[in-house]
Amino acid sequence: MLLPTPGRKLVVTTDVLVEGQHFTAALSGPEDWGWKAVAVNVSDLAAMGAVARWLVLALTVPDAAEVGTLQRVYAGIGEACGAFGVALVGGDVSAGPALSLAVTALGEAGQVVTRAGARPGDRLVVTGPLGAAAAGLALLRRDDEPARALLSRFPGLAAAHRRPAPDLGMGPRLAHAGATAMVDVSDGLAGDALHLAEASGVGVEVSDAAVPLAPGVAEAAALLGRDPVALALGGGEDFVLAAALPRTADLGGVLDCGRFTADPHRRVHQTAAGALPLDGLAFDHFRRRG
Amino acid sequence: MLLPTPGRKLVVTTDVLVEGQHFTAALSGPEDWGWKAVAVNVSDLAAMGAVARWLVLALTVPDAAEVGTLQRVYAGIGEACGAFGVALVGGDVSAGPALSLAVTALGEAGQVVTRAGARPGDRLVVTGPLGAAAAGLALLRRDDEPARALLSRFPGLAAAHRRPAPDLGMGPRLAHAGATAMVDVSDGLAGDALHLAEASGVGVEVSDAAVPLAPGVAEAAALLGRDPVALALGGGEDFVLAAALPRTADLGGVLDCGRFTADPHRRVHQTAAGALPLDGLAFDHFRRRG
């Protein structure tokens, strides 16, 4: 949220991760949970065009939690703070029935971009390939021999689920280049493109053929018996940015995968079989469970 | 935590309340929980000399929670935001095994006061009477006929537990008057005076005879078979401010209840029976449970 402070604009966001909801010891380790709690918040700041600066953490810890586990959570937080250039500046710890990490992140922006502002004719761009986190999570859950073989062959898949690494520089660059709306892809591009279109009151067309798939997503989809583009669009916390960019904007490092249109009743993806509504993909069971 | 922004200083704090740890449906209502989540955070900002401006809320909600309960929590948050002059500017909601409210509050300060800075010779002052929250909680838990009669005769006791109402103006006024260290009384004055002395590397003497008791605390203590001053010092979330104030400072509206001294090994309260260590009172079972 934009805070009206003097000078550069101050931006704040908050996101809570809860054991059993967003992470579980079966699929990732305590360091990963700490890392991810930082990553999802700094990603959200990048999506507003801001540079992340500070974090506070409100932790709830079950009585049965081991000190070693908490030390590993903090180690992951520390690693992420170092990697993303942010400082943990405050916190609170309470007992509670599940481990949860509520992080509030503060950042600074020259130019703040919201979800509302996309205009008909704007390009829909993303800052990286999609589907790795959804594929990684599905394979980690499946955990049979072929799944393990794929995870070993494409280490980026499990890493995308466990250690999302948003490219924080792209947020301010997109804002500076004139992005009219922006979001980070935390629910799958189908859902997040819908978020942009809804907030902006416009239509959107995603082109399936243009959706950039991360390495291993096609192979994972084949094993899982799913359509790879549907896997990439329908779920997963890829933590790349999705933005509406005017055709006149000049910016490298972004990948086109659709466009915004004038008809707010038409929010679709173009498949080989024709246009299908995006909301058929947007609430996939992969959504925000981990 | 002080954030080095240009212009006025930006201050941030976070505090999480968890059902079963900090509140329970047996003793207070959902509106109270929302109110309290705001109050404890803005109180913490006041204790740094700051004026609270913005809040973000990360809520976790059990699947079994009723929508009506959440609406009442939000109503309490709204009431408190109105009463304290702060704006809720962001949030996140997640499923989780218990209702928890992680609030992060941001404020602005001209002059920031920390816990470290009290000097030998400084007065120990508080901004209001003590013991109402501890007495209220004890009577609510006891819930027999005499306890209910006292709660009815002194409505401020239950209100102090359920709806703490920090005087936010006093924080900046104390900072402006030259307070050298400050804290809000959230664990009982014994514990919080110890926090100030420890952070400042000095001694402290609390004078039992000078401790201002809230209306009804003496009567509650008599019913509970406890010493009223011990009840007031040992626990309870009174959310008044405790500060170290130089003898030369000129400020009305504060109550003297002791002084800071040069000997860091002597942190005591003066009783009728002589000086006793403060840490004998500071970890009372009333501490932060509700």
What is the compact description of this entry?
The structure is a homodimer of 290-residue chains. Chain A has 9 helices and 12 strands. Chain A is α+β, with helices and mostly antiparallel strands.
Could you describe the 3D structure shown?
The structure is a homodimer of 290-residue chains. Mean pLDDT of chain A is 92; it is low at 284-290. In chain A, a hairpin with a 2-residue loop joins strand 11 (267-271) and strand 12 (274-277). In chain A, the strands form 2 sheets. Chain A has a 7-stranded mixed β-sheet, sandwiched between helices. Chain A has 290 residues and is of the alpha+beta class. In chain A, helix 3 runs antiparallel to helix 4 (145-153) and helix 8 crosses helix 9 (228-234). The first copy, chain A, folds into 2 domains: 2-109, 60s Ribosomal Protein L30, Chain: A, CATH 3.30.1330.10; 123-280, Alpha-Beta Complex (Phosphoribosyl-aminoimidazole Synthetase, Chain A, domain 2), CATH 3.90.650. Chain A has helices spanning 30-46, 67-84, 132-142, 145-153, 155-162, 170-177, 189-200, 217-224, 228-234, and strands spanning 2-3, 9-18, 51-61, 87-95, 100-109, 123-126, 181-184, 203-207, 241-245, 255-261, 267-271, 274-277. Chain A binds chain B through residues 1, 3, 5-8, 10, 12-18, 20-22, 53-54, 56-60, 89-92, 94-98, 100, 102-104, 106, and chain B through 1, 3, 5-8, 10, 12-18, 20-22, 53-54, 56-60, 89-92, 94-98, 100, 102-104, 106.
